[in-house]
Write a structure and sequence with these properties.
Number of helices: 1
CATH architecture of the largest domain: 6 Propeller
CATH superfamily of the largest domain: TolB, C-terminal domain
Strand order of the largest sheet: 3-26-25-24
Number of domains: 2
Largest sheet: 4 strands, antiparallel
Distance between the termini: 49 Å
Radius of gyration: 25 Å
Strand content: 25-35%
Structural class: mainly beta
Number of strands: 26
CATH topology of the largest domain: Neuraminidase
Length: 411
């Protein structure tokens, strides 16, 4: 703040000198700094430096102090804007907000242009939420920051499930995911359930819609919208992430009996199609981009996850394989197969270098080395089949268990 006061004082002095020489003093005033950036949850901001005067090009002001990063890392604050009327001096770089937990950095928003002047350069961004990829650039006018990364889990406070987990009303829970406010979402039968972080021992019905039945998976986009696969309606539908209200049908083409879903860093949605043995892809606007990946050995694709290097891992239930594909959908290798795994479902990677695989028919969660895919160990369950899997913001691996209806943390 003291630096900004000195900078303003210096500008006022230059303005007075210009008035004595008969110059237009309106060309001397630097634009105001940046606005606060909003991420996919959480904020970051920084005060931009003032620009050089219009008549004297000079360097921009020094950087402002960075704002504190929000709970979920969003895009960085924008830099200071240029002077009114004259050509801008080099914009002062604003320090970005402090990082959210883990995840790749979101792109900083570019500064808005001052009247008559060029836009200032972007401030350094805060990092995105856990697993999040880069956010989009910010809009003009005051340097509002871009939105946060797509596809990553939230960086909020998750207290953990109680010992023994939470049991749903039915006994066939499927996909699990975290909402942007850190609530745990679970689909079971025809309903999306919500486990609030403030009451982690209670699962409440949150979203349902007539005709949307046999729900298989739930995923959350960067703006908080819920995407749900319905085998009964053979479609992907959307619900409001705040109210649970039905929005629309997002996709109905290419797939036959949709199972699991996953978003990539660009917001494209991947859907596993049970009856066609393929993974299909849709743009953020819902454009059908066709089949992304398939092999003769994949069989009925179930769980999907992007690995640390960006490869897509897919579990094939009927042929008991887990395969990986490159960024173009090309087959890379089979990671694990029968008899080591039987009817694999949910998949996950954790920051400690492990890959997790739900082996449904052996009632086990298998842990592998995420680089070599050598088996580390197994966790067994009795009369319960592990189906859905998600990594919580605190690092817990949470699974849904068919047969009992439990949602629990893997020990």
């Amino acid at each position: 703040m003291r630096f900004v006061t000195y900078a303003l004082s210096a500008l006022c002095t230059l303005s007075c000198l210009a008035a004595c020489d008969g110059e237009d003093t309106t060309r001397k005033t630097g634009g105001t700094g940046a606005a606060t950036g909003m991420g996919a949850g959480g904020t970051s901001g920084g005060q931009g430096g003032s620009s050089g005067s219009g008549a004297v090009s000079g360097n921009g002001g020094a950087a402002g102090n960075g704002g504190m990063g929000g709970a979920m890392g969003g895009a960085g604050a924008a830099a200071g804007t240029s002077g009114v009327g004259g050509s801008a001096g080099a914009a002062g770089a604003a320090a970005g907000g402090a990082s959210g937990s883990s995840g790749a950095a979101g792109a900083g928003g570019t500064a808005g242009a001052s009247t008559g002047g060029a836009a200032g350069s972007a401030g350094t961004s805060g990092s995105a939420g856990s697993g999040g990829a880069a956010g989009s650039a910010g809009s003009a006018s005051g340097g509002a920051a871009g939105t946060g990364g797509t596809g990553g889990g939230p960086s909020c406070t998750w207290p953990g499930l109680p010992a023994g987990g939470v049991t749903l009303p039915g006994n066939s829970p499927e996909g699990v995911a975290f909402a942007n406010d850190c609530a745990l979402l679970v689909v079971e039968s025809d309903t999306v359930y919500r486990i609030d972080p403030a009451s982690p021992s209670v699962a409440s019905a949150f979203a349902t819609q007539t005709g949307i039945t046999d729900l298989q998976d739930v995923e959350v986009s960067s703006d908080g919208t819920l995407y749900v696969t319905s085998r009964g309606a053979n479609s992907v539908v959307r619900f409001d992430g705040t109210t649970g209200a039905f929005i629309d049908t997002f996709a109905t083409t290419t797939f036959n009996l949709p199972n699991s879903m996953v978003f990539d860093a660009s917001g494209n949605l991947y859907v596993s199609s049970r009856n066609t043995g393929a993974v299909v892809r849709f743009s953020p606007s819902g454009t059908d981009l066709g089949v992304f990946a398939t092999t003769a050995e994949l069989g009925s694709p179930e769980g999907m996850v992007f690995g640390p290097s960006g490869e897509l891992f897919v579990s094939g239930r009927t042929n008991s394989v887990v395969q990986r594909f490159d960024s173009s959908g090309g087959f890379v290798s089979t990671v694990i197969q029968t008899p080591a795994v039987s009817a694999p479902e949910g998949l996950a990677f954790t920051s400690d270098g492990r890959m997790w695989v739900n082996s449904r028919d052996t009632a086990e969660v298998i842990r592998l080395n995420a680089t070599t895919f050598a088996e580390i160990d197994r966790v067994s369950f009795t009369n319960e089949e592990p189906i859905g899997m998600v990594v919580a913001p605190n690092g817990d691996v949470i699974i849904s268990l068919r047969g009992s209806g439990r949602i629990t943390t893997v020990p």
